[in-house]
Design a protein that fits this description.
By secondary structure, the protein is mostly helical. Helix content is 63%, strand content 0%.
């Protein structure tokens, strides 16, 4: 169980690195931090529980049970925090994404993050491709198209033009 929780917490942290330009609130990782801490404690307590079982110590087993209950409460807390803050995180991410998409010019660091996001998540814009029509990049190019990272991967001759939305 400790190994599984460690994996989940580490996965969230690793995934966060790819999208940290979109998450300004560092507290979004609080549930992941709690899960990793619980995993470390679970590993140590599991070893103590095994030793108490081999020695058949009633006090050791009672202490083991109490600690397991504390761990359960911490896991429930992490779940509740994740559930409670999910809308806040969603709103913050969308606001930040609109800001980052607004800074897109095809050359800066934000542009490479946007391209990475669109290619790996197979999406275009914050909600859809029409979000690009309000960006400075869209208005400055004048060719009525979105970045090529919006193109579907199976479309070889995609130009990103808005009059061909089936390619996006």
């Amino acid at each position: 169980a400790a190994a599984g929780l460690s994996y989940v917490g580490a996965y969230v942290f690793n995934t966060y690195k790819s999208y940290d330009n979109f998450l300004q609130d560092k507290y979004a990782l609080l549930p992941a931090m709690i899960i990793i801490c619980v995993a470390v404690v679970m590993f140590v307590i599991g070893l103590i529980g095994c030793c108490a079982t081999f020695r058949e110590s009633r006090v050791g087993l009672g202490l083991f049970l109490a600690i397991i209950l504390v761990i359960f409460i911490a896991e429930v807390s992490a779940f509740v925090l994740g559930f409670v803050y999910r809308e806040k995180v969603k709103t913050d991410v969308q606001g930040t994404m609109h800001s980052v998409f607004g800074k897109y010019d095809g050359k800066n660091a934000e542009s490479s993050v946007v391209d990475y996001l669109q290619e790996h998540l197979r999406c275009c814009g914050v909600k859809n491709y029409s979000d690009w029509t309000t960006t400075q990049w869209f208005n400055s190019t004048g060719n009525n198209s979105v970045p090529l990272s919006c193109c579907r991967q199976d479309m070889k001759n995609c130009t990103g033009r808005l009059d061909q939305p089936q390619e996006l």
